Fold this sequence. Notes:
The chain has helices spanning about 10-35, 50-65, 70-75, 85-105, 110-130, 145-170, 180-220. By secondary structure, it is an all-alpha fold. α1 runs antiparallel to α2, α4 (about 85-105) packs antiparallel against α7 and α6 (about 145-170) packs antiparallel against α7 (about 180-220). The protein starts with 9 loop residues before the first helix and ends in a 25-residue tail after the last helix. Residues about 215-245 have low confidence and may be disordered.
Amino acid sequence: xxxxxxxxxxxxxxxxxxxxxxxxxxxxxxxxxxxxxxxxxxxxxxxxxxxxxxxxxxxxxxxxxxxxxxxxxxxxxxxxxxxxxxxxxxxxxxxxxxxxxxxxxxxxxxxxxxxxxxxxxxxxxxxxxxxxxxxxxxxxxxxxxxxxxxxxxxxxxxxxxxxxxxxxxxxxxxxxxxxxxxxxxxxxxxxxxxxxxxxxxxxxxxxxxxxxxxxxxxxxxxxxxxxxxxxxxxxxxxxxxxxxxx
Length: 246
């Protein structure tokens, strides 16, 4: 397949991304409504009249995150293998599994908070992907790194939420869903570490490399070449190191 030209899926991907925006808006709205406008997130028990509806809601969420693997298929068909990172595959694989395990142990609104938060993040993410399908808008999409920051913030908020759940639920519940709490807590911690590592490797190092290139260009304009790592001229004249640390 490496000899074939990439498929032009721009229109299909555009429709797919727009559909994901609408779906995740609905997913967040539905999760908030099922949890009593967010007031029942710390509720230990799902009411009998809401159990079936909440169960269907969880199943729809899990199915949607499995369908998200279409992102990977589109990357392959468009020959954008560089975007198929280990984090990308791991994230898309683990999220449906975690929610399935959590729902198996605890079908309560407590787990709904994570779904609502994840859906809102996906609204932002797929909005970026949708806009990126328009070549004229690409120069204005400077805020890509902030999507990763939002994802990191999501996991930080999840850690706080589940730590509170670990501390408070045993005080108010006869049978607190502690297995679900610990599972969510560990998964949020794992994702936080992985996304921080990704952000540092992708944006921090990229910014430092760009800074070194600017220093090298400035040194050339002054008649000397700058060593990338030290910021010193290589023609025998020493200067101060100017490595930028962000």
